[in-house]
Amino acid sequence: MPWHAPAPQRRAARALLALAFLALLAAAKESGPAGAGGARRKGAEGGDEGGEAVKEHTRDLGRTQWRQHLHRLAQVSVDDRGIADLLGPVLRHKYELPPAQVQKSLVYLGPNARLRRVVHDLIVGKHVRVGAIGGSITHGAKASKIGETDWFSLVSKYLRDAFPRANITTRNGALPATPSALMNMCLETYVDVDVDLLFVEYVANDGSNA
Ligand SMILES: *[C@@H]1O[C@H](CO)[C@@H](O)[C@H](O)[C@H]1NC(C)=O
User: Fold this and answer.
1) Are residues 87 and 145 located together in one domain of the fold?
2) Distance 165 CA to ligand 1 centre (A)
3) Most informative mutation of 121, 122, 127 for ligand 1 (most atoms within 8 A of CB)
4) Same structural domain for residues 178 and 201?
5) Which of 44, 76, 110 is the last residue of a domain?
6) Which one of 77, 110, 143 terminates a domain?
7) Range of the structural domain that residue 145 is part of
């Protein structure tokens, strides 16, 4: 259903793209089968071999479901461009988990207005500042090359590939061996005041006190 939006409405239309994507993710929750849970139970009986089979099954299920998503998205278009084309790099990412499991990993979604604003800025090509704070894992411990193969660098690269029009600047403010209580006292030093998207990772350092 091609839709020719007048120029002043284009920005709003692009914001809708982001909303549509998030809505489709939310919709995945309803359409997702109980497959993953069922598969895990089956695997428990089969030992290690079963575990591998479950992983493979989950991966296949994930790919099938993401393909179905892309197929549904392909029918929507804005400014004469299919939404799947616009969001292609994001959607063609090789997801290892079915959409239902990705959905489950989100503890609290909230109204997400600020996150939607960031996605909108990424799509229309604005300057977006991305930061990270956390412990050694985020700093890059055990990565083959800090600044290139640590997870934050990989996520940053992914964002640049997925949103080539945006000017994405990144800053990794993680400090090895520090809990969030310490970072809390010096946030201004490690996080830019105008950061748009901040990743926070304190699972290991806050969880190891017990
Ligand atoms: C991206 O933003 C930074 C910070 O504002 C600026 O210095 C840089 O020139 C921009 N790059 C491009 C390609 O616009």
Assistant:
1) no
2) 12
3) 127
4) yes
5) 110
6) 110
7) 125-210
Find out whether the beta carbon of 127 lies less than 6 Å from any atom of ligand 1. Answer: yes
Edge-to-edge strand list for the sheet holding 127-134: 167-172, 127-134, 197-201
Choosing from 169, 192, 193, 194 the residue with most ligand 1 atoms within 8 A of its CB, the one to mutate for a pocket test is: 169
- 41 and 133 in a single domain? The answer is no
Q: Would you say residue 58 lies in a domain?
A: yes
pLDDT at 171: 98
Is 98 inside a domain boundary? yes
The list of the chain residues with pLDDT below 70 reads 1-48, 208-210
CB neighbour list of residue 191: distance below 8 Å, 6 or more residues apart: 131, 133, 171, 173, 198
**Atom of ligand 1 lying closest to residue 167 CA:** 1
Enter the pTM of the model: 0.60
pLDDT at residue number 20: 56
Which residue CA neighbors atom 10 of ligand 1 most closely? 167
What pLDDT does 24 receive? 56
Q: Which residues of 125-159 are buried (b: 16+ CB within 10 A; e: fewer)?
A: ebebbbbbbbbbbbbbeebeeeeeebbbbeebeeb
For the Cβ of 167 lying below 6 angstroms from any atom of ligand 1, the answer is yes
pLDDT score of 69: 79
pLDDT at 71: 83
